[in-house]
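G., before I forget:
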Amino acid sequence: MRVVDVERVRGLPLFCGASDETFNAVTAGAFLQKFPAGTTLLHEGDPVDFLYVLLDGLVELEGTWNDKETTLAVLRPVSTFIFAAVALDADALMSARTVERSDILMLSGEALRRAMQTDAHFSYAASQELAGCYRGLVRSLKNHKLRGGAERLANYLITQKVRQGGAETFTLPHEKRLLASLLGMTPENLSRAFATLTGYGVVVNGPEVTIARPVVLERLAKPDPLIDNHQPPSPAPIGKAERELWPASRAS
Amino acid sequence: MRVVDVERVRGLPLFCGASDETFNAVTAGAFLQKFPAGTTLLHEGDPVDFLYVLLDGLVELEGTWNDKETTLAVLRPVSTFIFAAVALDADALMSARTVERSDILMLSGEALRRAMQTDAHFSYAASQELAGCYRGLVRSLKNHKLRGGAERLANYLITQKVRQGGAETFTLPHEKRLLASLLGMTPENLSRAFATLTGYGVVVNGPEVTIARPVVLERLAKPDPLIDNHQPPSPAPIGKAERELWPASRAS
DNA sequence: CCACCCGATTGATGATCGTCAAGCCGCGGG
DNA sequence: CCCGCGGCTTGACGATCATCAATCGGGTGG
């Protein structure tokens, strides 16, 4: 593992409060691996032996039932995933698959659980990370139960715009088919939803989207800080906990 | 607070591994309160100062957007709630409301966070609780994105049957309007979904439901351990973590 | 005892969404 | 260069679901 990668991991909120001792204990048996696009890292129902850390690339978390599948989240670096299953030493509830070529660090679940039982500060950071993940899912569930398709898309676009810096036009981070699955609809209906948003000042050109009249779109989307997390981009790596705490901006 | 209540709290997985010292520190400023049915304990967006523990009664967690509301969970004793917001000292993402008259214990969030930073074992138990809550939400999200209304109801009924002991007929734990909101549909459509299930051996008599032909219903419901948690009832109080770990039955 | 309220049910109608089919377009391989 | 594949779009249709309205029945209070 390169020094620069070690530093990126060390800089994660999950680890930056830990002692050198526990950090070394946790990263001792770790290994960094590169995966091509489309690789299934972990399958639903499998026992989970490692905590995964996405250092570079793009990863999709998906769930399956009755030959249908849906994507529950799309992760960008730097993110940990399946931490909850690791913490409980339980089977995975979702599959993980690379969307692009990705660099992924794998940390021993055993070692992590041992470290949590020893180092209170590390364990506290772990709780914060898990709490942040939990709140992300609460947002997602509210998004799906309370909003219709076009509203979900409108809010997704507004969130993307903010996260990519706020420029009038931005680029979708992945294929539309994946976006459709994330938003809980079919690719066909995503197309139609985009067509609907044309009437609200949204112009689509392949993967490029421009929001020509933000005010009009927001009147449809009705973004809500209790559902949408409009956190602007940050230079430092950020965890699920900080993302939740951002509005109070208690850090920095 | 009565001795019997103290013991019930002490027996929670969250606390049963903690030292007497941290348990006393956390429960020092705590108070037990009785609320009538229909009381809003906490409103969406409010700062959260306490961890709530439902000792008796029934509590609904609900989310709101654009004058619509949906219930995200219905809790029965003994359960903690809004732990994630407490852990992060963040605003609540959902409201909490009593469905029945309830006994609720309120623990200082400040004290809890301090205890987590001091006592690694307590912090570890907190992580497990949060991880269990997280996985509960993953199940919920998959349930909603992958299944239709009648399927969600069928699985809900099967889960209730198992949790209430497995008898052929059992009683719905609350009003149908609340169930409809939990399942993500209108009361009208819940009625129609029940009518549909009549063809699969489900007989409804007010709040009483009997599953006459379990095999037929299961062929429709296709219950899945990665979505539904068919944990049988237990004499000891159980936390969100244990509920997730049940299939491995590593405790007794 | 009756009036009233509220939850549950049923029907009719429209909106939303999924499915099937066809066509378009950009890209890479033969 | 042309072919073919895959992602995207569009149209037509059917299934699911929400909404509005009316009705029924149990429980409460006057």
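Chain B touches chain A through 59 residues (CB under 8 Å). Chain B has a mean pLDDT of 94.

More on Monday.
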